[in-house]
Amino acid sequence: MTTVPPAGPAVPEEPLPAVGSSPRTDAEALWSARYGWDTESRAGESPQAPGIAAVTDVIASQLAHRSVRRFLPDDVTDAQVSAMVAAAQSASSSSNLQVWSVVEVRDPQTRAQFADLAGDQRQIMAAPVFLVWIADLARAYQIAADAQAPTEGGEYVETMLVAFLDAAIAAQNAAVAAESMGLGLVYVGGVRNDPAWAAALLGLPQRTFAAFGMCVGHPDPARPSRVKPRLPQEVVWHRERYDLAGQSAPIADYDARMAEFYAGQSMAGRWTARIKARLSGPAAMSGRETMKRSLQERGFELR
Ligand SMILES: Cc1cc2nc3c(=O)[nH]c(=O)nc-3n(C[C@H](O)[C@H](O)[C@H](O)COP(=O)(O)O)c2cc1C
After folding, report:
1. What total of structural domains would you count in the chain?
2. Which domain does 49 fall in, by range?
3. Among 39-43, 53-57, 106-110, 298-302, the least confident range
4. What are the residues whose beta carbons fall under 8 Å from the beta carbon of 22, sequence distance 6 or more?
5. Is the Cβ atom of 121 under 6 angstroms away from ligand 1?
6. Same domain, residue pair 40 and 142
7. How far is the CA of 185 from the centre of ligand 1 (A)?
8. Is the domain of 177 the same as that of 115?
9. Which among 67, 132, 275 is the best mutation to test ligand 1's pocket, defined by most ligand atoms within 8 Å of the CB?
């Protein structure tokens, strides 16, 4: 029987912050960071949440997630990538169609091209491995073509959605796996800035689409990233019926906490300003406002 190696440093190794005179539990500290209770305006308060008592090692690793953009040059091994792929394949898949693929890119020149394509995102060159997650209907079409079976169902938006959902769900399983091994990662939606270029770099056939990339490597401990607080649970967690009106007050609270967080990162602005900027119009979409056409050019019919 193989021995499973101990989990990597999913929970930060530095001493956890103390509140008042009583030290926080690991779970409390992770929860605090996740919801921004560790900002100056909340210092000394303890988060009250029943979920804290239910935190497992897996959840602790998830609570400790932060995107990593600064990497050591150390290698990510084939065994580590293979374990990530196995975790990805262990995710649920709509009707078990498994309409996704992943392309591992290590070649520095290709990574440099992706860094360019994504808008000068240098972390793609810094990380030894760049995984590109593919919404993949090509394999399904090939299976049907080999059997001379009809493929009209592949032309519907629903089928495209299934491929993108499958790719995203698989990728996030791989992300959790990577972090459990002590690796760091950041997703890169910038690969959608030029879908045709991304497809050419990877030799993608028609009916496949590079949905997003993922830089994977060893986090540089000299330049750590912080856990970014998320919306209060009451904003995203509805019971029985959806409530929009009740979200305003907790969102305002979060906005204030995020302003503190951004200031700590030498960044200005508010979270709600980012939302408004994104919705303001095509100018804020990095060229991706033409996505419908790009999808059609890649062979997704969008009926
Ligand atoms: C689909 C997707 C695409 C993303 N694209 C980029 C990207 O192109 N560049 C980048 O630096 N971060 C990217 N991110 C990372 C997000 O900015 C990050 O997850 C978010 O700010 C929350 O921060 P955290 O991951 O540290 O909690 C992306 C995340 C997702 C899920």
Report:
1. 2
2. 1-64
3. 39-43
4. none
5. yes
6. no
7. 10
8. yes
9. 67
